[in-house]
Amino acid sequence: MEFGLSEEQEQIRDEVAKFAENEIVPHAEEYDTEEKFPHDIVDEAAEMGLVGASIPIEYGGAGYSTLESAIIAEELFSYDPGIALSILACSFGTEAIREFGDEDQKERFLEPVARGEKISGAAISEPDTGSDVSSVSTRAEKDGDEWVINGNKMWITNGTVGDFFVMLCKTDPDAEGRYDGFSQIVVEADRDGFESEKITGKLGIRASDTAELILDDVRVPEENLIGDQGAAFLQQMQFFDATRTGVAAQGVGIAKGALRAALEYAQDREQFGQPISEFQAIQHKLADMATKTEAARNLTYKAAWNVDQGNDITKLASMAKEYSSRIAVDVANEAVQIHGGSGYVNDFPVERFYRDSKITQIYEGTSEIQKNVIARELLGKGF
């Protein structure tokens, strides 16, 4: 078994770390406190090929593998999750276009995202629809050569800064199957009837834009339909292994960043005439944090590698997502504990890591949903 990364992958990690240290860290507290989207940093990231990193080279992207994308996510999130998500989420929704879109759609939507000229988004969740995606009520009805869309989307990343959104809509309300009759349609944000309202006061990842979308008779051309009409659920199932692995990498990054901050603080902070890192209680905390982070990383990398091999890893991807997100919360919690009172204020980054960590247990399927998936796969296929 080969556990090492290639020289090129190590170089990717090093370059991302340098970028984060120079461009993200000095501004992380500012963007978090003011809850504003880091446009300038995103532009710089685009020049490095970090925006749309997995978009194929022929459409202007870097063409990174799932494993390489996981390495990038881990490294960026280890410095600041909010800005990291802002960078990586610029291509949200483009997975469907890459896989099922026609050539015209790929040129119209993928290329400007890869160049950093446009920001995309995925609009699935609704005010009354979270984990039960089959309850989506946003409707798209055909009128001549256009789709007319009405509905309400909630918790949409890039909602007020995105240029277009891949939107899950009900296109056949009479479909018999629970998962039938849904389609994905690209909706541009400058269409008449499209409105977005920024959501503020989030616990964490405050630099990342989140909004509610309201669609009132929004008209888009029929050529904005992605793939076959009524096939959206089958389309989305293609990406869960990769997207959940991506969130697992985010969790690993948060744990790594919190551990790094705790190590530095423990060696600088003195009590009773010595650094607190000399106390066994602190050493044991650090040892547990490092072990958990390494275990989460190995599980995540294994999942990412298997995605690149085209293997069916539904169970493994959910394991990686559930475990890594849990470890992110646990390690960030211990990092705050090591900092004591200093960890309860934003003078140190662990306060931010602690708040940011929680979202990894919620988006892309809650931890409870991941356990349901794991159990279902175990009962159906064994261990």
TrEMBL record:
Residues 235-379 form the Acyl-CoA dehydrogenase/oxidase C-terminal domain. One of its GO terms (molecular function) is flavin adenine dinucleotide binding. SUPFAM superfamilies: Acyl-CoA dehydrogenase C-terminal domain-like (SSF47203), Acyl-CoA dehydrogenase NM domain-like (SSF56645). This is Acyl-CoA dehydrogenase domain protein. Belongs to the acyl-CoA dehydrogenase family. Transmembrane segments: none annotated. Residues 6-117 form the Acyl-CoA dehydrogenase/oxidase N-terminal domain. It comes from Haloterrigena turkmenica (strain ATCC 51198 / DSM 5511 / JCM 9101 / NCIMB 13204 / VKM B-1734 / 4k) (Halococcus turkmenicus). Keywords: FAD, Flavoprotein, Oxidoreductase. Gene3D superfamilies: Acyl-CoA dehydrogenase/oxidase, N-terminal domain, Butyryl-CoA Dehydrogenase, subunit A, domain 2, Butyryl-CoA Dehydrogenase, subunit A, domain 3. InterPro entries: Acyl-CoA_DH_CS (IPR006089), Acyl-CoA_Oxase/DH_mid-dom (IPR006091), Acyl-CoA_Oxase/DH_mid-dom_sf (IPR046373), AcylCo_DH-like_C (IPR036250), AcylCo_DH/oxidase_C (IPR009075), AcylCoA_DH/ox_N (IPR013786), AcylCoA_DH/ox_N_sf (IPR037069), AcylCoA_DH/oxidase_NM_dom_sf (IPR009100). Its cofactor is FAD. Residues 122-218 form the Acyl-CoA oxidase/dehydrogenase middle domain. It comes from the Archaea.
